[in-house]
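Internal ticket #5521
Category: modeling
Description: The requester needs a full-assembly model to guide mutagenesis choices. All entity lines are attached below as received. Residue total reported by intake: 1676.
Assigned to: D.W.
Attached entities:
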Amino acid sequence: MPEYLTPALAYVAAALLVPFVPKGALRGLYLAIVPLAGILIFWGLTPGTYNAFNVMGMQIGLMRVDALSQLFGLAFSVAAILAALYAWHLRDTIQQIATLLYAGSAMGAVFAADLITLFVFWEGTAIASVFLIWARRTEGSFAAGMRYLIVQIGSGVILIAGIVLLYRETGSIAFTAMELGSPATWTILAAIGIKCAFPFLHNWMHDAYPSATVTGTVVLSIFTTKLAIYALLRGFPGTELLIYIGIAMALFPIVFALLENDLRRVLTYSLNSQLGFMVVGAGIGTPLAINGAAAHAVASIFYQGLLFMSVGAILFRTGTARATALGGLYRTMPLTMIFCLVGAASISALPLTSGFVSKSMILSAGGYEKMFPVWIALLAASIGAILHTGLRLPYLAFFGSDGGLRPKEAPGGMLAAMGLTAALCIAIGVMPAAFYALLPNDVPYEPYTFSHTIVQLQLVAFVALAFALAVKRGLLPKAERGIVLDTDWIYRRLLSAILGSIGRLIAGLWKGAGRMIASSLNWGAGIVYHLHGPRGPFARTWPTGAMVMVVAFLLGMTLVVTYI
Amino acid sequence: MNNADLLLLAIAIPALTPFLLAACGKQPNLRDTVSVLASIATFAAVLPLLLAVIDGARPAISLIEVMPGLVLGFEIEPLGMLFATVASGLWIPTALYSIGYMRGAHEKKQTRFAICFAIAIASAIGIAFSGNLFTLFIFYEVLTISTYPLVAHKETPEAKKGARTYLAILMTTSILFLLVALIWTWNIAGTTEFRAGGILDGRLDPVYAPFLLALFAFGIGKAALMPFHRWLPAAMVAPTPVSALLHAVAVVKAGVFTMLKVGTYIFGVGFLGKTGASDWLVWLAAASILIASIVALTKDDLKARLAYSTVSQLSYITLGMALAVQMGVIGGAMHIVTHAMGKIALFMCAGAIYVAAHKTKISQLDGLGRKMPVTFACFTIAALSIIGLPPFAGAWSKWYLMIAAADANQLIIIGVLMVSSLLNVAYLLPIPARAFFLKPKEDKAHGDAAASRIEEAPLLCLLPICFAALGCIVLFFTIGGLYEYLLSIPIRPESLP
Amino acid sequence: MTGSPETQSKSMPGSILLGIDTARGGRIVTWCLLLICAGLAAAGFTGHLHGYFEIEELPAFYGWFGFLVAIGLGIAAKIIGIFLKRKEDYYGAGSTNLEEHPASDLGMEASDA
Amino acid sequence: MMSLIEANLPALQVVLPLVAAPLCALLGRGDRSWAFACLVTFVTFAVSVALFAETYAGTIISYRMGGWEIPLGIEYRVDRLNAFVLLIISGSAALVLPYARRIVAAEIPAERQPLFYTAFLLCITGLLGITITGDAFNIFVFLEISSLATYALVASGSWVNKRALTAAYNYLIMGTVGATFFVIGVGMLYMITGTLNLADLAVRIVEHGDSSTLRMGFVFILIGIGLKLAMFPLHLWLPNAYAYAPSAVTAFLAATATKAAVYVMLRFMFTVFGFDYEFQADTLRMVVLPLAVIAMFAASIVAIFQDNLKRMLAYSSIAQIGYILLGLTFLTETGLTASIVHLFNHAVTKAALFMVAGCFVLSAGTCSISKLGGIGRDMPWTTAAFVVGGLSLIGLPLTVGFISKWYLVLAALELGWWPVALMIMASSLLAIIYVWRVIEAAYLQPAPEGVVRKEAPLSMLIPTWIFIGLSIWFGINAMLTSTAAGRAASALIDSSHILWKE
């Protein structure tokens, strides 16, 4: 008899009960406690597969416990608690249910031992998360949500197609490391690639995340992409292709992040770039690189979350996240500013923050393998991250030119969430050993060597200097209202224009053909009616003489036929 | 009571119900009680049969020899049993729903409605249990005729026009193609019995096989294969319970069920696979899936959109048959069940929306989710099931269809199924999303308070909807049993290439 | 509009940093950064920096590399921006780029309210 | 006594109505003559049943009229085929006459009714005679008897509508032309063979060999009978005759008159000419086959546009005769089975439908489709009968029409004549249209204002529903009809010498 108690189940069950918990503090507490309960389910279990059973000849395993899944499970759970705190003020039941379902699906996918279970929760994250976008309740977010949903579910159906092919190829649906080579594995990689926001598959993120609600964006930033990283680490460790993809992914968003006006969109590009680091780590595939990617994923959940939270707080109080409208907020939102700076320091990999202890592992892994181009590219990407998120974002929001807004400091729940997250970022940075103990591979690594620390400080300081000069001399793009074209142009403009014209063409042809058919039918019917209608020759009462003529004619014809 | 008697009973109860209904047509309460009781009684007769068939029994009975060699007879095999169970099982919630709907919408001539409904169910079960193609054809035609008054129920000019299209296409295809195919089959095989592995193998020149299959595929107009699909949207003028049960379950499923039967027991999966006779049908079904989905995207009328969605989903089942592998048959059969569950819920929701809010257009639904949360929650669940997402039943049937496509080495078909899922998302999910998350256009002036008062359809409408939505979830987790059962469809594996 | 903006600002929680966003403040920050950079560059020579590649052996490699790349990225972004920037209504109405965040999702309050 | 009757059954079959006819005229008042005519038809029907039962197993009854030797004397020859046709004719008569009382009372003045029934009985006599006799010239005689009686019957419709007179006149002209052609053809055969006995003719024609006289005779007989059975385009007399004749007459004629002519056609083609020569088959396939197909379509389309229900049904009959002729031209056993079984099936169906039309005329005073709106509610049973009959006309399963269509298509497929099979089906789709126009009007159209319509009287409903019942019964259990038709067909095939038969 299989058992079903998994974190995912706990989340789903809890989500169904949400409407029955009274709104307010009680519900806030409830939402924060559920992830805690989730941790209790899997924490401390000896590695192995639990809740395994057979369905239609396929071996299903709902809960595989090992270091990797536990690490991601833990990170997701903690992030879910923080997100619940952040959304303490929220009174929207739909968002609360969606958040729990979303977190639960992500947990379920992380613990999935087989591909079917993975698929189930993979789609689960897609469906649950879209409600966080739609919950903004505007035409724009409705459309953005639809686009997001189609991409996300698209990833899911590509995954299932890959699973089908793999199942028919190998006869197994176990979720283990795969070799690229068959259509099956390519398909599965493509599915993961979409969720992971590989270049050219990335735009759903920049389209959808900034369209969500204040709290929704924070929640969204936690799960989907990190889940994809997890899937890469599990399914395609050491796949060389990933290195190149990762590099491209780490580099190209920099430019967009520097150009964007919407701060939430800036953060999505920065997130995208950080994911590139992790993909490179997965691609390098050495134990250290895997550790680095996993560690960076966990660290980025928190610092990226922290950044989204602080921008969310600004949006919550000012009603906008446009850089052009903001500036000078340090006056009235100093706490938010401090937390934001902690996040900025983290993403800049300043020593004593989480970014430092995680990112350096990936760079080191590249260094150990003597992959110079990889290393130099990642270094450049780090510089970009310091520039656009570490400096430009806090500068535009809190300093820069005074936008004249004097909003109140963020509400308590948000501050608490941000404070805890900031503390976590620093704690990881200060106590890396405890953090490393959680990583999947047992590889000794010491981030705080003298040279390491000093060069990283050099890097940050000189980039800051460059930023200061660039701002003064106008070497950076000015923040101005507007948008930046990205690949969504392909489907929002090009494709819709092409489809639109094809549609019009078909509609025109259809109409024309319909009219032609209708008119020829009418014409045909007219002829038929003319012949067979009540006054037509076939129906008319003929004069007797004519009748006899017909008879005579037929007789003659038949005779001719008979004699031939 | 032995199985053969039960078999007759399962057809006789709905077939005799009309007389009872006619007798108590003057007392609406009694009449409605009778139709609910009849639906329960029918299901009660079908259920033991299902258990018997699971145990391996194959009850058979022949009633009368119509022409020398042509027998009106029944024989139950797993596929037919499945269809009968679905049709009779879903009759119960629909019977309840009809009462709520017809009374809620103040429809006229409810007795005639109930009578024709019962006849339609009887003929659906007759189709399911038919022992040979000849018997099946007879009930197929009875089903067409008995649903005509239902489609024309409103007696408005549009209703008459829709009913005319309905009848014209179904009759034309069945007489022009299906009957010819039936007679041709009789001519070459000397029998029309359904036999494991088919009756045509070795008798039909493979060169002609695609043509005979074409006669069948187009002749079974109820399967709504393009280009003979127009009747289905046309039938949407009918009251919603009709659309729900008949045009999402009984009628259309009778079509695809016949398609599966023909593929499995007349041609034989092996014969189709060997000769490649169904290759063209694979592509036609695929095209039908995609085109119908795209057309659905352009429809603003809720029921029309659902109708085109049905056209698309039916082609999945045809596709399953045409792939000519065992998993195709299983996937197709499974899709009969899962799609029935999902689509009946969707149609019932459409009806509930009409009864409660008098809305028929999708663009009018903005903000309605606040008023009818249960209806739209169920709509969402059913829509997700239709799309084929877990944890809803539709995911499994799509899984097996994809497996079938992989088995048949049709990678492009896998792509088609994927694209179709996305199109499903695009045309189904905006409906609840709009209802829940957008503000009503005309209500902007009034406050939110007025908009958020709950105004659901009558309970008799709501309960069946919840039941069907719940079914979508339950089926996902209990699909293993269905799969085991479907494995018992005899396809004579040794005949496979 | 009573009282000067400065007096209002005095009462704000973040008033400790007041003036940092003025030109003078900016100059101070820049000079501070210059000092820090110089210090760090110097600190780099105090011990042997063992890297993975030879290029890291160059004096204050991370410093000037970071500086140059940052400036380079900024300029590159400026150039690319010419091609990629569009008006907010580019994707037409019904796009989140254009619409304001709905008030129902916000808790807008001014600090002196 | 019994044995005497049994021995003279074939003679009784014809003589009984013949003798009864003048008696009927003497009876005076309407009802009395009606009752007498009814009685006579019942007995006639009983005789037919007896003959059918006797021949069903395969016995051929050869009865010498007045004891004269064949071929000098006249022979009555009953085999499976004509026993079947006799059954159709006398059975239809036995059902139509009870039906006729009310409608005749409404359409014909009381003092004329005895004469009407006399003509009716004479008509029956003629039709039965045509069918039963084994003598070519005798066929002509009976043909004239039945035709003259029919002219009178059609003309009696003039009490309602004067156009019946022109219809009857046209019918007279055409019928006479047909009969003349027939007798010319028979004369030519006599020139060659010197005999008029059908069985004898068959033997002598073979002995004589091919000649232009034979060919000429063949063509004259073909066209002559073609006129009688309303083969397209020789059907021109039929629509008006059917439309303007009294309703009871139409019902009877539709069921029987053309059927007897078809029988003669079958008898001559297969038994007498026997396809010894290729020209016979060629003529059938090059002339009759296309005409039959055209009839199926042209007449059905005309039916679609008709507003008068009786006229519509008349055109439908022309199309249905197309089916019968089509089956004949296949020259295979299945094809013939289809034709013969359709003789019966169409008789049953069309009789019922014309009776329904009569009911409409009686109750609603019209059979114009546009004025029948909502009649389904006022006359539920009558309209239901129309629905069932209509479905049979379309050829839906569980009705006799389906059985006919089954055999017809099967025959076409056996020969590999694809297009023909599809055309048969396509033409039945036209039937859907003209039938459905009526159904839609009857059920979905609002009733015209201020019209009171009562359900038809039982005396009319019961015969109608007996026909409908038959068309359902023999649609569900077609063993009897299809076996009988099959046996008759095989007998015909055996008696012919179809050249290409293996």
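Resolution: model delivered.
Comment from assignee: The two ends of chain A are 88 Å apart (CA to CA).
Ticket closed.
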